[in-house]
Design goal:
single chain; alpha/beta; Flavocytochrome C3, Chain A, domain 1; Methane Monooxygenase Hydroxylase, Chain G, domain 1; seven-stranded mixed sheet
Amino acid sequence: MKLFAGTPGWTTEADVIVIGSGVAGLTTALNARAANLSVLLVTKAHIDEGSTKWAQGGIAAALGPGDSPEEHREDTLIAGAGLCDLDAVNVLVSEGPEAVRKLIARGAVFDKAESGEIALTREGGHHRNRILHAGGDATGAEVSRALLAAVQNDSGIEVIEHALVIDALQAADGRVCGVTLHVIGVGSSSGVGRALARAVVIATGGLGQVYSQTTNPSVSTGDGVALALRAGAAVADVEFIQFHPTVLWSDTSAAGQQPLISEAVRGEGAILLNHQGERFMEAVHPQADLAPRDIVAKEIFNQMREEHVPHMWLDATGIDDFKERFPTIYASCMANGIDPEQQLIPVAPASHYASGGVLVDLNGESSVPGLYVCGESACTGAHGANRLASNSLLEGLVFGARISEHIAGNLPEQSEPHEDLSEQRVLIDPSIRIPLQLAMSEGAGVMRSAKSLKATLATLEQLGKRQIKEPGVKAWEASNLYFLASAIVRSALERHESRGSHWRTDYLETSAEWEQRIIQHLDKAGTWSSSKVAVAK
């Protein structure tokens, strides 16, 4: 299945195409260059505008005294609520420390304690201080800076900015051998072109713009996952959308990207309060305000519903050095008229992270040969039903390195793209974007039910009928959001239980029979199908 895009007017070529310039894409590109492969790095906006720079909390790795990969593994498995792939988790936590050391060797500078050692803090779900941070709450920005500097100093990496990747190019045998892309007004080429490669790596980040309120930047429309779906790749665990529990609330009409209040703030002592000034997490979980994100988000949602209010409160007034420790968050609060050192911060859940994505193996390869996926776009199985705090940047570092190593040892000759004239082509009217986001937030958000999900799916099916044949960025993005929303709702309807970040009001219990992945497929005619696979333990 393909999107209407017009005839490509230009061609470029490299050994490897990497789509995305966050931690996953940049790490993959640098390691591919270390193997002496030519790299074309394609990014949708400016090279430093991906999701990575927004990451506040940090990177989790077992680097502190007394900590171990085994303890990190246990915390990850608990957060993943029975759906983690054990092999993937072992790869993540055992290769994580070395991946972080390599990042430091590439120039990343992390905050240090008075002793001169790297300062480690704690976040929700972790039983030890193992979170590295930089600039207080600007870890993602520092990671991005260090990796970008290395990329920009490598003449073997060609960068195309302001380019939206549309669809995969495939050889007659189905192997992915390139992509079609559109350069948005600025760049080395203009209009729709094609880029050929011996391997393609999707590292396009999240899909938060499926919802009306999110912590994700505006570019996070899930383009890579949608591309993989249309190319025939399996996607898994897409019903597990993590809603960050503490996003700065400003107004009921606020939409798009919202300021994140990192759970590192709770790690430093901030507490959640209801509108009676009462702590409510202590009665819910042994870790109270530092419980895993899904637990906290659900309870905030329940408290809001019970009190008929649009937000809860976060009390950070007990943190003496808030402005110095969390400068980005402090600035966001002050910009919204809140002094966090003196006032309570209004917070509410918003879509934050997709634990699922394109199903890949331990080398990052999808079910379609030649197509690799890394970072938030991938379902490695490491996150299970709910990502443990600060494992996301780590996943990009670890699996980006593994993908590059596998590509270097298994790179085929360049194949010629084959056009299947029978393949269906579609394009959805961009006017569906806002009603789609509202429908997803209402019916497939923090809490779901068969009734709400069926209503959402019916809305999506009606929106999908609004088709056009006039290609453009807004239409391509709307089409991608449509396919992703459809996959999320279909999987959420199928999973008859509550687990991790998937909560059904009509199936409140977790069931052992659902310790399996729900895998979605989309065929060339646009027909959906699903299957189930037991989780590897």
